[in-house]
Amino acid sequence: MRITLLLDLDDTLLETNMDVFIPVYFKALSTALAGAVPPDVMIPALTGGTKAMMGNMDPALTLREVFDSHFFPKLGTDRLALQSSIDRFYDEVFPTLGTMTKPIPEAVRLVDWALGQGHRVVIATNPIFPLKAVQHRLRWAELPPEKYPFALVTSYETFHFTKETVAYYPEVLAQLGWPDDPVVMVGDDIEREVKPTQAAGFPVFWVRESNDVPSEQDHIPRGKLESFQSWLEKTDPEKLKITLQTPQALLATLRSTPAAISTLAASVPVDGWSRKPAPAEWCLTEILCHLRDVERAVNLPRIRTILAEENPFLPGEDTDHWVQEHKCAEQDGAEILIDFIRARKETIGLISKLQDEWSRTARHAIFGRTTLLELVGIIAGHDRVHVQQIWKTIHAGW
Q: What's 253-284 look like in SS3?
């Protein structure tokens, strides 16, 4: 059975002391750009931009956009003015920093084995670096992207969330089209990988040299990297299913949907928005129109009703016919996506700070007695179905 493996990079596949590496990296970049920007201005701007990325919760903004909005104003310039110097740094200077890292032979063996088994391998590194930098780090790990067919390599150009925000994990799966395979995250950092992965409802294997852990972490599958293959082969695939059963996991998924769709849609040519995989199927514009209209006319009103009334009755909605009635195919797909993101942010705003309200009840015409938590779970499931549809539509021969 095919399994989707999310593999952390630093200190899982590549020996790296990030506490030492990051300051050296920042200093090297500031030195390379010193002719245009004084280092005493550059370093605080780099630090501030990085912190802004780590705190981003806006699905409308890629991490690069978040970084740029904090970084370049501090320098009194824009990206265009420095882009050639930045490119030269990543092409010529950044590769020399590989001496601060060390490849892990077992990592290469693991990736070779996983790909040989037909598993889907994702380089799930914290996406605070440009893709060029991540690719260099993969070469340092003796896993060059030119050789290894990774399903996805996460970077700040195409991702909207970092690992700390939990939404990173469903964004990875959504960018892959929410495959139905079993999935497991493999990483060493308890705060950036283990805890956020579990909060997102994803299975995790904690890469750890020592077996000495606090009692509250004793239930987490763990071991040295070389023990992961054996653990995976012995683990029932049913235990590697994603479970979206908590408010935190559901919120992370709801945030990830418009973010991932934005990245997927960015690769679509102008004429691709109206192209249908088959005559009876929806094109990308129609799928997005459906998501937007359901968000506006079904999801938001239901949530508001449950929060405002005691055990309200919620009528069933047949929404598929709206695609024709609203003439969705004639609308502007890019504008529809913007509208969907705006509506989804409104939904998230309604529920992101709820506490006991998740247990509020309602009577649904089809589902019967339900709760707010269950209805938000239905929204997340609906998202997943249509992200799968979007991915298949985009990859249908073009």
A: HHHHHHHHHHHHHCCCCHHHHHCCCCCCCCCH
Q: Which of 4, 5, 16 is nearest to 137 (CA)?
A: 16
- Asked whether residue 398 carries a pLDDT value surpassing 70, the answer given is no
* pLDDT digit string, tens, across residues 136-160: 999 999 999 999 999 999 999 999 9
Tokens representing 6? 């999310």
pLDDT tens for each residue of 67-95: 999 999 999 998 999 999 999 999 999 99
Q: Is residue 377's pLDDT more than 70?
A: yes
User: Which positions ≥6 away from 312 have C-beta within 8 Å?
Assistant: 305, 306, 362, 363
Q: What's the pTM value of the predicted model, to 2 decimals? A: 0.96
Locate 383 and state its tokens. 């998202």
Q: Are 88 and 32 in contact (CB under 8 A)?
A: yes
Mark 15-29 as b/e (b = at least 16 C-beta within 10 Å).
ebeeeeeeeebbeeb
User: Would you say the C-alpha torsion 241, 243, 244, 249 has a positive or negative sign?
Assistant: negative
Calpha distance 63→65 (Å, rounded): 5
Cα separation, 143 vs 128, in Å, equals 20
Asked if 145 contacts 153 with a C-beta cutoff of 8 angstroms, the reply is yes
43-65 residues labelled b (16+ CB within 10 A) or e (exposed): eebbeebbebbbebebbebbbbe
The whole-number pLDDT of residue 397 equals: 60
Q: How far, in Å, CA of 104 to CA of 238, rounded?
A: 30
